[in-house]
Write a structure and sequence with these properties.
Structural class of chain A: alpha/beta
Radius of gyration of chain B: 22 Å
Number of strands of chain A: 12
Bound molecules: thiamine diphosphate
Structural class of chain B: alpha/beta
Strand order of the largest sheet of chain B: 1-2-3-7-6
Order of helices and strands of chain A: HEHEHEHHEHEHEEEHEEHEHEHH
Number of helices of chain B: 13
Low-confidence stretches of chain A: none
Oligomer: heterodimer
Largest sheet of chain A: 7 strands, mixed
Shape of chain A: globular
Mean pLDDT of chain B: 97
Strand content of chain A: 15-25%
Mean pLDDT of chain A: 98
Low-confidence stretches of chain B: none
Radius of gyration of chain A: 19 Å
Largest interface: A-B, 41 and 47 residues
Number of helices of chain A: 12
């Protein structure tokens, strides 16, 4: 199996989907000839032609709106929003339209498509290249929300997402496009080549939506994370020696309540983590659900490790980001409580 | 400090309640005067059409000029019949709303030609993305009236299972897209749909309708940009009925100089047509459809008309415009104009018209009885309560399964 980074894995997923189904089309700002600002769609236009992989005007509402229209005609659009920070101009089309077409038409029309978008911080991106806006979308019935944490899952989840037939907001943690990140700001980049999930099959395969994965078994506490923070959590467990059980959520909606409950019922202690600001973030949903589901198993208050309730800062990025050290402190707090 | 020159300008309608409306200032191009370029013409050749007014029926109800679509009397009578039915249906539904049979209603009085003539000029296989005020399309396409009513009263036979407000029709079988409450979203969607038709190399095209007020939404710009960039086979209709609830069309700058003229800025063929002239709407739609099918791209049509009645059952227009405005409206009433045209041709008369109205009224009354036999919003039966959890996704996930259990249904 070839080693791929996340960009290559996403490219491979789109390659597989385009190859298998003439109804699949890929588009976004700079996504065509240039292959995308992160190169996720590199060479796809050359391979499949101008009408299957193409550039769009800089208008996110147009990108989302045309996806809805194309899906109504039976195409399977994969749309790219250049940064998740710029998904907001599309929010009316996504929230009011894409998410509700099946429901409001009682199944007469559907809007299956994937909206891919580079997401998250840790890259000195400042306020508008670092956001994690997942909670805006997890709150919307009719959408599925996915955040992969490695090349293998990125490809398998992207294929599953498009094949699900329902709209999927697919956020890509750009900090780990080229290699996992341990949450220590000045660590040199490690490549995916040495990572088990950096091995990616060439052809078609899927990773099931709605299924989380225990990426580290442990007894001391449960850590629930997604995207970049999955790796930071693992690094924190190694560095602190705390025997944490770490769950990579992968799909935020619908999230895998069973895997979470099983782990929390075993450990009784929980850290839920997100890069996004704290208030009304997705971690709040997880914390509330765990409280309902596992109340009698809990031995400590659920700890929310999150960004602060501030816009994402530039110079003080590492004061904002849930680093390895903050993770270790959070795990220590819940295990000692 | 003031430079004495700048002044904050807020447009106001030409007339307010109590004023005597007089539309002489509109200076509308006369029927028959507009030139008709080939549908494959460049967008530049439509510049005069965008600021003029395509009209076919003149003051004497004669069909004149290059845009006359030369329709047979049978087609004209069919058009008239759909428009009469639309108006009678609207009247009846308004009454039923007042009687508390449904929560809400929106009439299309005065705008029947905009929907009916366009639908008749399109193929039934063309996909339409309407706003909430083109119910005439449904009649022209032969939708079952009982089904329409069942939707409006949200009963057990509502094909939308009671999920949508009345008049938000969906009819996939009739290529009628699901109507949204969010204004303007259908423009980029129609562009995307049309792009997909072109991608598949099919003959099908798309058409969409928004109101004058809605042109101010960003999605108007998004839709026109997409259609122009990708030369999408789509027809964009701006139904300029002069009013967006209480706001005059000049709040969206339809007087600068016309809504149609905005299309020129996108490099789109653009035409303003008399929206109360069945033949003009038919001819302009036919032109735009032919252009789209020839691969020449999209057209922006402004249909110049007047919203003769209240915005909705929640609105009272006497609070913001003169009661007499529609009486003074220079383009008259689309039904009356087509009727007089047919009478002038010796193809219609008052007796036949009265009989048509009688038949349509009877049809609507009978249809409502049947619709009501499937339930009403207040008395039921409605669609099964558990159906509220269906169609959110292809398959309900654990959250929806649990929530359904929590509700005990
Ligand atoms: C995005 C959005 N904003 C506001 C509204 C509330 N609203 C409903 S209809 C309407 C007026 C629309 O006027 P126009 O586009 O001229 O169409 P008309 O009603 O005259 O047919 C408004 C403001 C809405 N439905 N959607």
């Amino acid at each position: 199996m070839p080693a791929m980074n996340i960009i290559q894995a996403l490219n491979s997923a789109m390659d597989v989907l385009l190859e298998r189904d003439p109804d699949v089309v890929v588009f976004g700002e700079d996504a065509g000839y240039f292959g995308g600002v992160f190169k996720a769609t590199d060479k796809l236009q050359e391979k499949y032609g101008l009408d299957r992989v193409f550039d769009t005007p800089i208008n996110e509402a147009a990108i989302a709106g045309m996806s809805v229209g194309m899906a109504a005609k039976g195409l399977k659009p994969i749309a790219e929003i250049q940064f998740s920070d710029y998904i907001f101009p599309a929010i009316d089309q996504i929230v009011s339209e894409m998410s509700r077409i099946r429901y409001r038409s009682a199944g007469q029309f559907t809007s299956g498509c994937v909206v891919r978008s580079p997401w998250g911080g840790g890259i000195r991106g400042g306020q508008t290249h670092s956001m994690s806006p997942e909670a805006f979308f997890t709150h919307v019935p009719g959408l599925q929300v996915v955040v992969p944490s490695n090349p293998y899952d990125a490809k398998g989840l992207l294929i599953s997402a498009l094949e699900s037939g329902d709209p999927v907001i697919f956020f890509e943690p750009k900090r780990i496009y080229n290699g996992p990140f341990d949450g220590v700001p000045d660590t040199p980049l490690k490549s995916w080549a040495k990572h088990a999930k950096g091995e990616v099959p060439e052809g078609h395969y899927t990773v099931e939506l709605g299924k989380a994965e225990v990426v580290r078994e442990g007894e001391a506490c449960t850590v629930i994370a997604y995207g970049t923070l999955v790796h930071v959590a693992q690094a924190a467990a190694e560095a602190s020696g705390i025997d944490a059980e770490i769950i990579d959520l992968k799909t935020l909606v619908p999230y895998d309540v069973e895997t979470i409950a099983k782990s929390v019922n075993k450990t009784g202690r929980v850290v839920v983590a997100q890069e996004a600001p704290r208030t009304s973030g997705f971690a709040a949903e997880l914390a509330a659900q765990i409280q309902e589901e596992c109340f009698y198993a809990l031995e400590a208050p659920i700890f929310r490790l999150t960004g602060w309730d501030i816009p994402y800062p530039h110079a003080h990025e590492w004061a904002y980001f849930p680093t390895r050290d903050r993770f270790a402190r959070a795990m220590k707090t819940v295990t000692e409580a | 400090m003031s430079n004495g020159q700048t002044r904050f300008h807020v447009p106001t309608p030409p007339y307010r309640p109590g004023d005597e409306p007089d539309f002489a200032h509109l200076d509308l191009q006369k029927a028959g005067e507009a030139l008709r370029p080939d549908p494959a013409a460049s967008w530049q050749e439509t510049q005069d059409l965008a600021t003029g007014l395509v009209g076919v029926l003149d003051h004497n109800h004669q069909a004149v000029g290059a845009w006359n679509p030369e329709l047979s009397p049978e087609v004209l009578r069919e058009g008239l019949s759909h428009m009469v039915l639309t108006r009678i249906y609207d009247e009846r539904m308004l009454k039923l709303q007042r009687q508390g049979k449904m929560s809400f209603y929106m009439k299309s009085t005065g705008e029947e030609a905009v929907a009916v003539a366009a639908a008749m000029a399109l193929k039934p296989t063309d996909m339409v993305f309407p706003s909430y005020r083109q119910q005439g399309i449904l009649f022209a396409r032969g939708r079952n009236i009982v089904d329409m009513m069942c939707h409006c009263i949200s009963n057990s036979r509502d094909n939308l299972k009671g999920r949508q407000l009345p008049v938000h029709y969906t009819w996939a079988e009739g290529n009628f897209f699901t109507i949204s409450g969010n204004l303007g979203t259908q423009f980029p969607q129609a562009a995307g749909y049309a792009m997909a038709c072109a991608y598949k190399g099919e003959d099908q095209i798309a058409a969409s309708w928004i109101g004058d007020g809605t042109t101010a939404e960003g999605d108007f710009h998004a839709g026109l940009t997409l259609a122009s960039t990708y030369r999408a086979p789509v027809i964009f209709n701006v139904v300029n009925n002069q009013w967006a609830i209480s706001s005059n069309q000049n709040i969206a700058r339809g007087d600068a100089p016309t809504f149609a003229a905005k299309g020129l800025g996108y490099g789109l063929a653009s035409i303003r047509a008399d929206g109360n002239d069945f033949l003009a709407v038919y001819a302009a739609t036919q032109w735009a459809a032919e252009r789209a099918r020839q691969g020449k791209g999209a057209t922006l049509l402004e249909l110049f008309t007047y919203r003769a009645d209240a915005h909705s059952t929640s609105d009272d227009p006497t609070k913001y415009r003169p009661k007499t405005e529609f009486d003074r409206w220079p383009l008259g009433d689309p039904i009356e104009r087509l009727k007089q045209h047919l009478i002038g041709k010796g193809e219609w008369d008052e007796t036949r018209h009265a009989k048509l109205e009688e038949q349509m009224t009877a049809l609507v009354v009978k249809s409502y009885k049947e619709a009501e036999s499937h339930g009403t919003l207040h008395e039921g039966p409605l669609s099964p309560t558990e159906s509220i959890f269906e169609d959110v996704y292809a398959k309900p996930d654990w959250r929806l399964r649990r929530q359904r259990q929590d509700l005990g249904v």
